[in-house]
Amino acid sequence: MKHSDLLIFNSKGIYCPKAQIYIDPWRPVKNAIITHGHSDHARFGHKNYLTHHSNIPIIRHRLGEINVRGIEWNEPFHINGVTFSLHPAGHIIGSSQVRVEHKGEVWVFTGDYKTEDDGVCTPYEPIKCNTMITECTFGLPAFKWKPQADVFEEINEWWQSNKDEGKTSVLFGYTLGKAQRILMHLDPSIGKIFTHGAVENMTEILRPQLNMPETHLITRETSPKEILGNVVIAPPSAHGTPWMRKMVPFETGTCSGWMAFRGARARRATDKGFVLSDHCDWQGLLQSIKESEATRVICTHGYTDIFSKYLREIGYDASIENTDYEGEKEDTSVTETIQSA
Predict the structure, then answer these.
(1) Side by side, which strands form the sheet with 68-71?
(2) What's residue 304's pLDDT?
(3) Disulfide-capable partner of 139 in 80, 154, 176, 307 (CB 3.0 to 4.6 Å)?
(4) Please, which residues bridge with residue 71 across strands?
(5) Closest Cα partner for 7 from 115, 133, 183?
(6) Which residues, other chains included, contact 140 with Cβ-Cβ below 8 Å and sequence gap of 6+?
């Protein structure tokens, strides 16, 4: 990238030389703007953290007593003549895009984002800019999400069907973001909602900000009879562990954008796949870029080759930069299946 660029990519992260500050750095730095609380974007070891105020409880829970300052949406702050502001990314609670302006030139780093309003976090806000840095986690035309309401109708029907058959429903979703989204849209009239300890801990951190239904933590004292016929929210890492024995008999379901591909559910060895992602699908990515009115697009983590090539074909100045961000993680076997699909 040119030295005159507002933001550059180096070995520590995305850097603004004029302001001497990083955005979501992957190595320890003095000053860092953090877009959201997922561990690939919010890392330990920085001296000073700037983030949206709703993200502070999350990153303090994960990183400890860090030196952090909270910023409100659309609140400009100035560093060495560069104007920054945070704007809703719609990815998870507290997730931000970062707008950077200097002498009339505007860049936007989207972080991770989705354009559908999930009813949990502050909805995505389009921002006009000259250069947009966008993720491409699901940057293939094959990724097309159904409306969220349809997905949760499927999930609640699945839960009710399992209950009718005398089975417990175990739903796997990421501890931060996905788990709370599932929780907010389950139908509590069907039964009780139980949680894995990791999910419960994060949910308790977020309860002051979200009006979530009651949950019941599964402990050593919890009996299988108490859980039977109800729903359990757990992280993907709990699948196949001895912790699952209390749920027998059970059916498992995975909530992920990767469930859009055949074979993904089978390789995760779950009974049911629900296509639910906290990232944009192909059309969401294209629409957000169009609304930004950017002429230059920098593509990061995901299907960058295919997506950037398509953007160039339709007239954008599109390029690729490597980062240490993981997007919505998937195992190698599923990724190989997707690439050959």
Answers:
(1) 8-9, 14-16, 21-23, 31-33, 48-52, 68-71
(2) 97
(3) 307
(4) 52
(5) 133
(6) 282, 303, 306, 307, 338
With a cut of 50, which residues of the chain have pLDDT below it?
A: 1-3, 330-341
Q: Tell me, which fold does domain 8-143+279-329 have in CATH?
A: Metallo-beta-lactamase; Chain A (3.60.15)
Is the backbone peptide bond immediately before 242 cis, with ω within 30 degrees of 0? no
pLDDT of amino acid 112: 97
Domain boundaries, the chain: 8-143+279-329, 148-274
CATH topology classification for 148-274: Rossmann fold (3.40.50)
Span 98-157, pLDDT tens digits:
999 999 999 999 999 999 999 999 999 999 999 999 999 999 999 999 999 999 999 999
Q: How many whole angstroms separate alpha carbon 222 and alpha carbon 278?
A: 31
pTM of the shown model: 0.92
Q: How many C-beta neighbours within 10 Å does residue 263 have?
A: 15
CB 229 within 8 A of CB 167: yes
Instruction: Kindly report the number of other CB atoms within 10 A of residue 213's CB atom.
Output: 12
pLDDT computed for residue 266 by the predictor: 57
How far, in Å, CA of 242 to CA of 131, rounded? 49
Give the DSSP letter of residue 147: P
Question: Which residue stretches of the chain are H helix?
Answer: 56-63, 148-164, 178-185, 197-206, 224-227, 264-267, 282-292, 304-313, 332-340
User: Are the C-beta atoms of 97 and 111 separated by less than 8 Å?
Assistant: yes
Q: Which amino acid is at 336?
A: E
Q: What is the pLDDT of residues 183-201, one digit of tens each?
A: 999 999 999 999 999 999 9
Give strand ranges (E) for 10-61.
Answer: 14-16, 21-23, 31-33, 48-52
Residue 269: the pLDDT is: 79
